[in-house]
Amino acid sequence: MESKELRILLLEDEPTLGQEIGHALRKDGYLVQHLVNGLDAQRVLFDDTPDLAIFDIMVPGIDGLAVGKQAKQTFGIPVIFITARNSPADRVRGLDLGADDYIAKPFLMAELLLRVRNVLGRNGAESTNLDIAGLVIDLGSQNCNFNGTEIDLTATEYKLLLELVENRGRVLTKTHLLSQVWGYDAFDPNLVEVHLSSLRKKLNQAGVPEIIRTRRGLGYQAVK
User: Fold this and answer.
1) Residue 10: pLDDT above 80?
2) Does the 7-122 domain belong in CATH 3.40.50.2300?
């Protein structure tokens, strides 16, 4: 994805998770400032307002809900809450504060990236379409079409296609795809083959040129 230098403020006090989220966002072309304390995040809002805030709720200093409320009401920044607290009451409270999205731990990094794009797209900060060989992938609706005709993909096929297209030109191993699409560190690699075969069949039936190549012994690659 082409970088548009959009800035994201990440508030997450779990070191490993924070690093993983930051890495994924930077790989997707965003500028990321990662903080672990709510008071520090509050200062950043005043000093250098970001384009999007991703806040864990349970953090030191001042909780993410309080900082998120200020981000929305004072600065008009879109906010995504991430939290291990996923009861209906917690979700309602977050959304009542004006949150643009609310994602429960654990989650797939691909899912978080999709939600980030969707929120930025709704707020007019980012285009929500990817185009490859005439195949249009709408990140907002999570649909894709070719020559105006929608292609009916399952959620897994969509994620698989998106992972390949966003890394077009790179050879992705089955292990990589299992990790990013399914969230498995180790699993039957035939799972990738089965879903990829179904995805290719649907794309072919819709008239889409061959955009996914098999690199024998290595993995799969979306054409540039």
Assistant:
1) yes
2) yes
Which tokens hold the place of 138? Answer: 């709408």
What length does the chain have?
224
- SS3 at position 4: coil
**32 contacts 10 by C-beta, under 8 angstroms:** yes
Task: Give 16's contacts (C-beta < 8 A, 6+ positions apart).
Answer: none
Specify whether the CB–CB gap between 121 and 128 falls below 8 A: yes
DSSP-derived pairing of the beta strands 212-215 and 219-222: antiparallel
pLDDT by residue (tens digit) across 43-101? Answer: 998 888 899 999 998 899 998 988 998 888 888 899 999 988 666 666 666 666 677 88
Q: 68 near 42, Cβ under 8 Å?
A: no
As a whole number of angstroms, the distance between CA 176 and CA 156 comes to 15
Q: What mean pLDDT is predicted for residues 9-22?
A: 95
Please give the pLDDT value at position 12: 96
Which residue is it, tokens 């643009």?
A: 100
What letter represents residue 141's amino acid?
S
Question: 136-145: per-residue pLDDT in tens?
Answer: 887 767 789 9
Q: 8 with 51: CB under 8 angstroms?
A: yes
Which pLDDT score, from 0 to 100, does residue 173 have?
Answer: 92
Report how far residue 165's alpha carbon sits from residue 17's, in angstroms, rounded to the nearest whole number: 25
Strand partners, 146: 135, 149
Block residue for tokens 């970001």:
50
Q: Please tell me the pTM assigned to this model.
A: 0.58
Class of domain 129-222: mainly alpha
